[in-house]
Amino acid sequence: MWSFYFHELMRSLPFFMKGVWMTVAVAGLSLIAGTVVGFICGIIRAGRNKILRAVIGVWVDIVRGTPFLVQIFIIFFILPGAGIELDAFSAAVIALSNLTASFICEIVAGGILSVPKGQREAATASGLSQYHQLRFIVLPQAMRTILPPLVGQYVLSIKDSSVVSAIGVVDITRVGWFTVQRIPEGIMVFGLVGLLYFAICYPLINLSGYLERRMTVMTIRL
Question: I need a surface site. Which of 37, 91, 98, 195 has the fewest CB within 10 A?
Answer without folding.
Answer: 195
